[in-house]
Amino acid sequence: MHSPSPRRLALVAGTALSVMSTVAVAAGPSEPAALQGTKAVRLPPQLTGITQSAEALNAGDTAQLGVQAVDPQGSPLTFSWSASAGTLGAPVNGANSSSRSWTAPACLADGSAPVVATVSNGLGLSTSAAFEFSVAQDLYLDRQPEFTASGFTERQNVTLTPQQTLRANPAWMPESPELLVLPSDQRLTVSFVYESAGGSHGFGYLYVDDLRAAGFVDSQGNLTDNNANGIADLHEDLYNLAPPTGTQARPYIGVNRRCTRTFTSGGFTYSQPELASNSSCATAFSAGQLLADARPGSHPNVNVDVVGSFPPGTPGTGYSDSGLFARIPNLLEPRHALNGNRGLGHIPFLLAEDDSDVSTYQQLGAVGDGSTASDGIPDYDVSAYDAHGLPRSVNPNPGISGYDRTVDLGVVQGGRELVFFLVAAYGLPHSMDNGTVFPCLRKSATGQCTLHLKTPISVFFSKAKWNLDQDPVGQAPAAARNAGCAYSDRCNPAAPSTDACTVVGTTQSLCGWLDYDAQVRLNTPHYGNINLPRTAIVAPQSPSLSMNMPHVMVGATGTWPGEWLLAFEDLNGGGDRDFNDVVFLIRSDPSGLVRSRVLSPADAGCAISRVYFEKQDTRDAATCDATSSISYAISTDCGSPTPTWHPVTFQGPPYRILDVSSTPGNQLCWKATLNGGQSSTCQPTIHNVDIGYETVPVTP
After folding, report:
1. Of the residues 198, 217, 268, 420, which has the fewest C-beta atoms closer than 10 A?
2. Contact between 424 and 214 (Cβ < 8 Å)
3. Would you say 354 and 379 are in contact if contact means Cβ atoms under 8 Å apart?
4. Whole-number mean pLDDT of the chain?
């Protein structure tokens, strides 16, 4: 009986694409005498069996492969395997057989035979069998698991609900400057609007948790005094007041002290503040000065110590703590080697000045004034610095232009309390007639100031209890204004009649808030054509028992959700209390954004060719209008810093099949933007997304 041929075995198995063997013919003196002069035929191994558990597989599935063979000459056999695609498992070899598993790749060209098994004998002859496979492509196989927090690389202003849906958060508007916490990650921009003040100003913000981590704020949100010398550590480090040595010393905020002079007040030793000292660091401390009590009431004269001075003219190198910017406290600068990497601030606008001259107040600005135009653009090249205030290596828009009106703060983390601040370069006397006071560094148990600071560099926080100046009026609220009414200095806030406006929906009259020019400027395309509503806004009374002066008003624009104005009063003690000296427009992007993680395996041999996308989403008709929307996009190169996004649009059915072969890639993800439109209560919701794909081999 003849043995079956290898080709017949292949056909019976129905699995091997081809069988290849070699044959050798030889004659020579080493052959037996009877065969001398004849040709001896040496045969390759013969395949006696070929097994393949499956020919069609899904990507990642495994097939079991095997070959059996004999050698006509009886020489020992060796087996080897190779795979041009997919992954081979460990071999299991016997004397006459070999088996191995094979895991299918993500894709395979039609008619491919990616696996080859070769058996060789001791004469160096071999026979090979190639295994043909196909890898199934299921366009409709859903690759998107249920929504979880870990399933997204980005999730801004979107809540993952207990029902595993994605719901846009309603637009956020702060109720008070005293507590500014975004409910979720949101992109913020800040635009300069207007400045009408005699001083020069820098504008920035802090994260309260950064201050807490540095020990300036306790778990209840109160300022600390860890060295127990009567001055809050935050204020002490703003002006580097701690003594350089001793038990009450604190690390210097900066690199090297400019001034080393100390003074004693109330039994404590302090460093004379550099931001209140001239270029020679001359003595600037006076004990027992007779000044009006800055607490609310009758303001009798009291004895109080005073440290610091105002520059009589050009300050030169005085009134500076060096650092990254000479006239911004090092602690409020962005972290940098020039402040000893101790800066905690973010400063989108180093100079909020917009006037017709080219000088800052007594040359005390953080940067120079470079424009005479009063056009709503700060008078310096804002884009030369990043959103934190650090100098850029490359300026994206050199020169002063409309580009400098707005700074993108990027994505600001939700749940982290923000405190905005204004650094004001200005100097006014301690005068109850003017409503101005010197900042107070230390108070007695009754709230009376015992150590005043006289400096041209003041800091005002949106959180009133952090401010150094006392409120000599003490009324609640500290001020009230009509947002949509133009400011007039003829209007008396205590008895508003002349040039006052009625608050919409009430009979209440209040003096106006912003200057007429500021109102006109807001009602231009640069700011989104804002027409402020005639609603009441207030500066709340400080919650502090010592009556610190509030310096910030916030008010909704009434034009778009998530858009509000933040305006400062820049005089210590409140002065005229108009709260419109420096004005900014804050925009928190009310739209939600989600981006999924990559949903396809990283297989460089495959490219995604088609994508199936189906969505289930809702927009509540009771709260959402026609301006609301949910938009989707997919990308196949999500590992790129700049992915190519294909918009997914729907006409009728909520599903689409997209040909993405024009931008080949193997890293599939999707993103969605949920926009509540002009409704402040609209919350578009994504309930589910199904996404599948097909791949093709990458052509070399």
Report:
1. 198
2. no
3. yes
4. 91
